[in-house]
Write a structure and sequence with these properties.
Chain lengths: 357, 295
């Protein structure tokens, strides 16, 4: 009812290529933005910093992965490795005394250099084989991280991140860190929203649909594959660096293991390939629901007076996380973004939905 | 280097490699029938080992009874997974199929650990740990038993693919449209391949559980199994056996040369490098079918 197509007329190309063609979409996005900005003042800081902040940073990382997997159609099971490159190089740069602004850019750039190596795998392999190659590269990266103390920070294999300092301001308060995450996530979202309507975005989609066919249309598929990998790695690298700088405060190889790569891919696929709003949903589901379920199980077992042993409780979130992936894919293989799209399409013509048939 | 020591490394490597083949046969069976890369095979292997242990310890059956019953249970589980999850996604892009098998893997691992706990248990097959000397070469008995099981499975599948049912499976692997049109139930065939893969998973779980203990680490065999399957050609059981031996030898001998150079733990590195090189140089593997892709 609030989504109305009636009364929305596009009389020129500029209005037809707007990001939000329906005013209701734009209003919804603005409302969410206001909520996001106001969150530190209306929600307890524990929730903001332990749920919303990782959610935002992971969303930006997932959007980066969505760029290469959803838009350009290249499977990537080594995204955590790319994030690790970004995180470690940014932190080493910051520890070396480089200002954080530049350290983040250095992190992003070095991640794109390593990330482009993954694209050379995409030159020869695609589909399943590309997934396996990137998986193997992730294993190699894990190995390098855990076996080189110079990178991972000495015998404890952990590296303390220096205090985040942007534009001359030390950012130590919870609210400040949250705003850094929000700003980065907004930046990535705006980039991705606009990517859809550029020639680059269309070229990526052409490569995804069929690279030979794209080549016949004059789209140099290998060039665009490298561009996609480099761009997504840049986003991933900066997100990885910010994840450590604002959330973990300490970089360790386990934060970027194979399981994390799989988690990132799960976020993108559960959210919906190529869907921006879907990435937000997917990250929320994968990151937050297992913990919530565990909380529910703990309270339920206390209420009912059941004794569930600690080990069982520790593994329930994992089982739930796997089950979520399977269930969402069975209900809607195109992910939560598609489910949202269905609801939106329904509301668009409600209460006159018989008109569509 | 001492030739006897080198031979010992190579022979033990080959035996370990055959144990990887045991794992990889499961992957190959499913890929052959339905072109689904089953990344849940690690989870299945782990479940298989835990089911055997649950029957042996918690129910109190002797192992010779527990293993066949576990085989039956796991056959049902594999069949069920195909029926509930994979069939609904048939014809979808490979990314979704990969993801659902990864999801299944995480789910199977999480559930197993939630039910039985994560502490490592021992399988206690009753194979002695007395060293066995073949000439001057030291061989592990359990690896020998495992390698024998792997070769037996290979022989059994060779024979199986000559039976009426096996020919149906081969037809499905060849061209499922044509199989459909001559009245072969493709769905049932693919379900059967999942069931058989789960049976193989039980045997891999039992042998590997005896070697390294029954715990979460069983699912980490996935990378090695995948490498063997890809090197062998993903749809060839003979390939899985040969590739297993090759990977085992390369890994064992290579690690012995590389470990002093890089400070240990180079096995993972060698396996990952073999996987990447195979895909870069010969994606269809040693014995795999070379498909032509069209626009």
């Amino acid at each position: 009812m609030f989504y109305r197509l009636s009364g929305v007329y596009h009389t020129n190309y500029i209005s037809d290529s707007r990001i939000y063609k329906v005013p209701a979409d734009r209003n919804l996005a603005l409302a969410l933005l206001v909520l996001g900005v106001a969150a530190p003042f209306i929600a307890p800081s524990l929730y903001v910093n332990s749920y919303m902040l990782p959610w935002l940073i992971w969303t930006s990382a997932a959007l980066g992965l969505n760029l290469v997997t959803g838009w350009a159609g290249q499977l990537h099971l080594g995204y955590a490795a790319v994030m690790a490159v970004g995180a470690y190089s940014a932190i080493h740069a910051a520890r070396f005394g480089v200002p954080w602004e530049f350290a983040l850019i250095i992190g992003g750039l070095s991640a794109s250099v390593i990330g482009s190596l993954f694209a050379f795998a995409a030159l020869r392999a695609k589909g399943l084989y590309l997934a396996l190659t990137t998986l193997a590269m992730q294993f190699i990266m894990d190995w390098v991280l855990t076996h080189s103390p110079a990178i991972s920070g000495g015998s404890h294999a952990s590296l303390q991140a220096p205090t985040l300092k942007l534009l001359g301001q030390e950012i130590t308060s919870d609210t400040g860190l949250y705003y850094v995450a929000l700003a980065w996530c907004l930046l990535v979202t705006i980039f991705m929203l606009n990517l859809k309507r550029t020639g680059l975005g269309r070229a990526l989609v052409a490569v995804r649909e069929k690279d030979y066919a794209a080549a016949i249309l004059g789209v140099h598929s290998f060039y665009y594959k490298i561009v996609a990998f480099a761009m997504s790695s840049f986003i991933g690298g900066v997100s990885g660096a910010l994840l450590v700088a604002t959330f973990f405060f300490l970089a360790a190889p386990e934060q970027f293991s194979v399981a994390v790569s799989i988690q990132a891919l799960a976020m993108v696929i559960v959210g919906g390939l190529g869907s921006i709003i879907g990435s937000y949903f997917g990250v929320a589901l994968i990151l937050l629901v297992p913990g919530l379920v565990n909380g529910v199980v703990v309270t339920a077992s206390e209420q009912l007076g059941m004794q569930i042993n600690v080990e069982t409780l520790a593994h329930i979130p994992n089982a739930v996380y796997g089950a979520l992936i399977v269930i969402i894919l069975l209900i809607e293989p195109l992910g939560l973004g598609k489910l949202y799209g269905n609801i939106r399409d329904y509301l668009m013509v409600w209460p006159f939905d018989q008109l569509r048939k | 280097m001492d030739p006897v020591f080198l031979a010992e490394l190579a022979i033990n490597g080959a035996l370990t490699g055959l144990l990887y083949s045991l794992f990889a046969i499961g992957l190959v069976l499913i890929y052959k029938a339905s072109s689904v890369p089953n990344l849940a095979q690690g989870g299945l292997t782990m479940v298989g080992a835990y089911v055997v242990l649950a029957l042996a310890r918690d129910v109190g059956m002797p192992l010779w009874l527990a293993i066949p019953i576990a085989v039956a249970i796991m056959f049902g589980l594999g069949f069920g997974i195909e029926r509930v999850a994979l069939r609904r996604l048939a014809g979808r892009p490979v990314v979704m199929i990969l993801m659902i098998t990864l999801g299944l893997d995480i789910f199977l691992r999480g559930t197993t650990l939630a039910v039985w706990g994560g502490t490592s248990r021992s399988m206690e097959l009753g194979v002695s740990y007395e060293p066995l000397f073949l000439g001057d070469i030291l061989v592990s008995r359990i690896h020998l038993v495992g390698a024998f099981v792997a070769v037996m499975f290979f022989a059994a599948f060779l024979l199986f693919f000559r039976t009426r049912l096996g020919i149906k499976l081969r037809a499905i692997a060849d061209d499922y449209m044509a199989s459909w049109s001559v009245g072969i139930s493709v769905e049932r065939g693919i379900g059967l391949s999942w069931g058989l893969a789960s049976v193989v998973a039980v045997s891999a779980g039992v042998i590997w559980g005896e070697i390294q203990g029954v715990d979460q680490a069983l699912s980490l065999l996935l990378l090695k199994g995948l490498t063997v399957a890809v090197l062998g050609g993903l749809d060839s059981i003979l390939g899985a056996i040969v590739a297993g031996i090759i990977l085992g030898v390369v890994e064992n001998v290579g690690a012995d040369f590389l470990d002093p150079l890089v400070g240990g733990g180079s096995r993972e590195l060698i396996v990952a490098a073999v996987l990447i090189l195979t895909i870069m140089i010969r994606p269809h593997g040693l014995f795999g079918r070379h498909d032509i892709e069209r626009v």
